[in-house]
Amino acid sequence: MKITNNNINFYTKYNSIQNKKREITCPNQTTFKGLGALALFTKVFQNKETEFANRFFLKSGKPTKKDCEDVVNNHPTTVTKAYREVFENSSYRFDMTPNICAKAGYNLKKYFDNHFKNYRIISVGTSPANISQTMEYLGCEVVYLPISGAKGLYEETVRPSFLKKVQINELNNAKIVSEYFKSKLPKNDNKINILLDYKLSGKTLDVLSNILVKNTKTDKEKLEKVSLIRALYDAISENYSDNPDMQLTKKDIEAINSDCVSQILERASNVPHFQLIDRENRNVVHWEKDNYISSKGKTKNKIFQEFEKYSTKLGRAYGLCAYNELRKMGLV
């Protein structure tokens, strides 16, 4: 039996007639016998798998479907480490497990497929990002908009007098988000853009819709504002599967809602915060957090790159686990 791992070849021979001892011969003709040979192979294999897992978790950007497929098929120990990363950290506990996330993504995609013929998901902020990424694994086109603080712009979008309270140059970030959105859309695009957010008050979606229409000339008729939680309740009422492993329950939605309200999903999100109102020079505390991207002193393209490359170790681990749950359901 020949075992190959990163150009290191081991040849295992079984001599069942003479002594039934295992021998492993390396390319330099050095032969290790018995338990020593097995220990050598085990150590080298474990080191290589550890190196691979570290590279995967620390890589920048969201894990793609191709990335996850490769890991699940060829690196099972990395999958195990991903589940440990999600479940064994004592500083937090997810109510929305990767299994619930996978079921939510499946049912939400079925819901949108049933109600819209030609659409893309515009995932707004950190809250829906994990479920949106699961939908992307299932074939949805998804654009991630890393916005925060939209409620602070609510009056500006309905009453011009609000501009007296907020300086014009502080709205630069809103224009940057608009241009990022526009850069993701092909010309002469006919798809419906579904703005998907957790939606507690609905103000974030109202603000974002008005900003995108104003700054990108997007047809308002092609923007559909959808509450994540409301859509999930509608999806389970339409019952898209008889398979209990794929069925989403009200208890599952309560778990999703709990993690959205407590903002614990931010820990597992590969989407950063980006304040629509640019007040960096006022020493606001949140700029000190790692999951906030600042626009200060950066070009538009630099900010776009940071949007694309942002990820966390926990976020990549969670995404891999959600993909693996879809695989166990036979959906990918």
Based on secondary structure, the structural category is alpha/beta
Q: Give the overall average pLDDT.
A: 82
Low confidence ranges: 1-21, 281-288
| Approximate shape | globular
- Binned, the helix content reads 40-55%
Number of domains: 2
Number of helices: 12
Percentage of residues in strands: 5-15%
Distance between the termini: 31 Å
H/E series: EEEEHHHHEHEHHEHEHHHH
Largest sheet: 4 strands, antiparallel
Could you walk me through the main structural features you see in this protein, from its secondary elements to its overall organization?
With 332 residues, this protein is of the alpha/beta class. The chain folds into two domains: 1-52, no CATH class; 98-328, no CATH class. The chain has twelve helices and eight strands. It has helices at residues 34-58, 65-74, 76-87, 98-115, 129-137, 154-158, 172-183, 203-216, 228-238, 250-261, 300-309, 313-328, and strands at 2-5, 8-14, 22-25, 31-33, 119-124, 142-145, 192-197, 223-227. The strands form two sheets. A four-stranded antiparallel sheet has the order 1-2-3-4, covered by helices on one side. A four-stranded parallel sheet has the order 6-5-7-8, sandwiched between helices. It is globular and about 70 Å long. The model is unreliable at 1-21 and 281-288 (pLDDT under 50).
